[in-house]
Write a structure and sequence with these properties.
9 helices; 5 strands; 2 domains; single chain; five-stranded antiparallel beta sheet; alpha+beta
Length: 221
């Protein structure tokens, strides 16, 4: 996906509204007006985006566990074959939403330190907390929790290896930190009176500094 240009409020002739997204085909590409950004997307992403928006709209009124593939397809007027061509199940769709939205959220950003990246992660979850409060309650294989765990594990292991030097990072050490991070993130997201993402970043940074005994634990990028 390419971020083409910024706008504040465009209603463009020739666009079709699917959910909250305006679409127009141009050969193999489509221009997409979503929130305040005009994107250029490959047509395979059109279907995924429409399915994602359909799921989000359904989740405003229906628990995730009660939503079927048929409900999602009916909401965006697609058939089940189209859904299964792109996704294994609705959990796979949720994971795709995280992967693509967070990538869009951080693309083009210049980060000075690892803490800046972490702040953006917290900011993303905070601004989308209504959605993640619901999906983080889903447990089991292919859930967003397990997907996020798969993403975090190699990152945490790399950071532990850097801190421990010649010592070998054990699976227990890695999983201890990953489990703790995900658990803290879930409690924060599901708290109706959640602290801001700036406050959470500050608290997390203080904790890491206390654990490592360092006043500057984030390396420059």
């Amino acid at each position: 996906m390419v971020n083409a240009m910024k706008s504040t409020s465009w209603i463009i002739p020739g666009f079709v509204l699917i959910g909250e997204t305006y679409l127009r085909y141009v050969d193999k590409l489509v221009f997409v007006l979503d929130t305040e950004v005009l994107y250029i997307m490959a047509d395979s992403s059109i279907t995924k985006k429409a399915l994602a928006n359909a799921l989000k709209r359904l989740m405003e009124d229906i628990p995730f566990s009660k939503i079927s593939i048929g409900d999602i397809c009916e909401k965006c007027q697609m058939n089940r074959k189209s859904f299964y061509y792109h996704f294994k199940d609705k959990y796979d769709l949720v994971n795709w939403i995280f992967d693509t939205e967070f990538l869009e959220f951080i693309v083009g950003q210049a980060y000075q330190t690892e803490w800046d990246k972490l702040t953006e992660l917290f900011k993303y979850f905070y601004e989308n907390r209504s959605f993640y409060r619901k999906v983080f309650g889903v447990k089991g294989q292919n859930s967003i929790e397990e997907h996020f765990r798969d993403i975090l594990q190699p990152v945490v292991r790399q950071r532990l290896d850097e801190l421990m030097g010649d010592k070998i990072t054990s699976d227990f050490q890695m999983n201890f930190l990953v489990d703790g991070f995900i658990g803290a993130l879930q409690r924060w997201i599901t708290d109706i009176n959640a602290n801001t993402y700036e406050e959470i970043t500050k608290e997390f940074k203080l904790f890491i500094q206390c654990v490592t005994g360092s006043s500057t634990t984030a390396s420059s990028t």
